[in-house]
Design brief:
By secondary structure, the chain is an alpha/beta fold. It has 15 helices and 16 strands. The strands form four sheets. An eight-stranded parallel sheet has the order 4-14-13-12-11-10-6-5. It has a three-stranded antiparallel sheet with strand order 1-2-3. Strands 7-8-9 form a three-stranded antiparallel sheet. The protein is globular, with a radius of gyration of 20 Å.
Length: 373
Amino acid sequence: MSLTHDVIATDGPARAGVLRTAHGEVATPVFMPVGTAGTVKAMTADAVRATGARLVLGNTYHLMLRPGAERIEALGGLHRFMDWPGPILTDSGGFQVMSLAQLRKMDADGVTFQSHIDGSRHRLTPARSIEIQHLLDATISMALDECTPFPATEEQAAASMELSMRWALLSKDAFVPRAGYGLFGIVQGSVYPHLRDRSARALTDIGFEGFAIGGLAVGEGQEAMFAVLDHTVRQLPADRPRYLMGVGTPDDLIGAVSRGIDMFDCVMPTRAGRTARAYTSQGVFNLRNARFAADDRPLDPACGCLACTRHTRAYLHHLFRADEMLGPMLLTWHNLSYYHDLMAGLRAAIIAGRLAAHAEAVRAVWQAGEEPR
């Protein structure tokens, strides 16, 4: 049997569930730390586990270029390679090819590009993307797609979506079913509801273990993103997990969970941790700010992470001012812990049937916090 998602409670469109995979169970809604090149930046695998994370994301594009999927497979697969026995979701590489690769040339069957690392030429097709993810031993593989840029005309969005649907079918054909593993299709269509409808229908007809919503958080703004989610989620099978790709801020997560999304990934908490920005129950802090220089309080009294229980705001401020690598490490640990705690709180609120009240209370504390969000 492929991986499954059992919904155990609902509160309006929001769902709490359990994702059951070959590499363990994951409570949903869930945020996935991004481990682009086989590592969550500034974190050991034990540190990532200590934040509460049980599912991480790896990147097909980066790993195919360095050290190479075949090498990782020969070394025992990505789970062993990065010391992560739990579930791993790998993206297809399509977004990075479009955003990072040089001299790319796309056609109906795939894309030819030059590496951003050394200029070497590569060919990525749906079949090759799925093969790479298989070599990595990804628990959840993603169909190759084109992430439609924003803004895009309706004609451009339609052509991009149709190409992604062609690639979705080819990805499905190439995927090797295994017990506890799964392949997700990706809904595209930009901000055009009828295109999202066509994409969702095409993917449902092909048949996937889960469905992602792509092409959002690319500049359209939160209001437009939520409007797309309100429309699109209703078109997806209720018995399959729903994954919103590349999102987002804590407020984005609350809004998307409220609309029925189960899974998320984003570089935001780790990138913020490396640049002295802390997401806390009281809002967002910049630890480089001079006002923290003599502040002996914990970063977030509501958090049980190492940064908050063992160190002060003054110490964290000092680490960043002194350019010590421990600062980004501790703040990344905290931000991932905060995201995990946020999702755990949303899950508990769904089960208790009080999601709206919980979300309102969380936002009220942010708004009353020490710094504007």
